[in-house]
């Protein structure tokens, strides 16, 4: 069987075809799905994040790595679900109401998936009601919001207030991010975590939930 390090390397290089083929071969040979995630895929995405933070990788490399990881996860996720393996956490992520930008949100979603979180991507222009529904119906314990425009930043506070009014704020941790967002703004609206980059989103999520 192929050396499993090739799965790690394929994700690092953004080679989706090899990542999928290696995963398929490993599963056929009886390798535990969780082993693939914990020992090869998650470390690979952590390394991608480190390279991004050090300016060795840029957005295109991050997107390619995310695509490779998703290709492998498509084969693994149903097996993890069937075995009853619990994700690190369940995240509802979306770009807030009025904002149609999704690249940053997609990168954060990919990094969180690579970190072992189950991600429910609500898309763009997401209303407070949609986030609330995800908490109530999907059992998410993290709400992650993105905004790229200063004009849509207030939607974050509106959503936090709506979660409070709906009686579900205490059930979730709220993470925020995006170009105009700062730690100061995150604190002002009562968010539980903030990251200035997609690469830092996983550590922010872990810190918020105390993992």
Topology:
Blueprint: H1 5-13, H2 16-28, H3 33-53, H4 59-83, E1 90-96, H5 103-114, E2 118-126, H6 128-138, E3 142-146, H7 154-165, E4 173-177, H8 183-188, E5 193-194, H9 201-209
Parallel strand pairs: 1-2, 1-3, 3-4, 4-5
Q: Compute the separation of the termini in Å.
A: 34 Å
Largest sheet: 5 strands, parallel
What is the CATH T-level topology of the largest domain?
Answer: Rossmann fold
Strand content: 5-15%
Q: Number of domains in the coordinates?
A: 2
Poorly predicted residue ranges: none
CATH architectural category of the largest domain: 3-Layer(aba) Sandwich
**Counted beta strands:** 5
Text of the CATH class of the largest domain: Alpha Beta
How are helices and strands ordered from N to C? Answer: HHHHEHEHEHEHEH
* Arithmetic mean of pLDDT: 92
Q: What count of helical segments does DSSP give?
A: 9
Anisotropy-based shape = globular
In CATH, the homologous superfamily of the largest domain goes by the name: Cobalamin-binding domain
**Rg result:** 17 Å
Helical fraction: 55-70%
Spatially, the strands of the biggest sheet line up as 2-1-3-4-5
Structural class: alpha/beta
Overview of the structural elements:
With 211 residues, the chain is of the alpha/beta class. The protein is 56% helix and 13% strand. The protein has 2 domains: 5-83, Methyltransferase, Methionine Synthase (B12-binding Domains), Chain A, domain 1 (Orthogonal Bundle); 90-209, Rossmann fold (3-Layer(aba) Sandwich). It is built from 9 helices and 5 strands. A 5-stranded parallel beta sheet has the order 2-1-3-4-5, sandwiched between helices. α1 (5-13) packs antiparallel against α2 (16-28), α1 packs parallel to α3 (33-53) and α1 crosses α4 (59-83). The longest helix is centred in the middle third of the chain and has 25 residues, at 59-83. The protein is globular, with a radius of gyration of 17 Å.
């Amino acid at each position: 069987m192929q050396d499993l390090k090739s799965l790690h390397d394929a994700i690092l290089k953004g080679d989706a075809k090899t990542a999928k083929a290696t995963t398929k071969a490993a599963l056929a040979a009886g390798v535990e799905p969780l082993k693939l995630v914990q020992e090869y895929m998650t470390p690979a995405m952590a390394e991608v994040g480190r390279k991004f933070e050090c300016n060795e990788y840029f957005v295109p490399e991050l997107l390619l790595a995310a695509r490779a990881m998703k290709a492998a996860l498509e084969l693994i996720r149903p097996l993890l679900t069937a075995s009853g393996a619990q994700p690190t956490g369940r995240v509802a992520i979306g770009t807030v109401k009025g904002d149609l930008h999704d690249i940053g949100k997609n990168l954060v979603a990919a990094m969180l998936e690579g970190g072992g979180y189950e991600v429910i991507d609500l898309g763009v222009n997401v209303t407070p009601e949609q986030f609330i529904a995800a908490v109530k119906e999907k059992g998410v314990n993290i709400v992650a919001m993105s905004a790229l425009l200063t004009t849509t930043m207030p939607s974050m506070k509106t959503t936090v207030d709506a979660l409070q009014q709906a009686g579900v704020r205490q059930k979730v941790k709220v993470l925020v991010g995006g170009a105009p967002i700062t730690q100061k703004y995150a604190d002002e609206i009562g968010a539980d975590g903030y990251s200035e980059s997609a690469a830092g989103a996983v550590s922010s999520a872990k810190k918020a939930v105390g993992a």
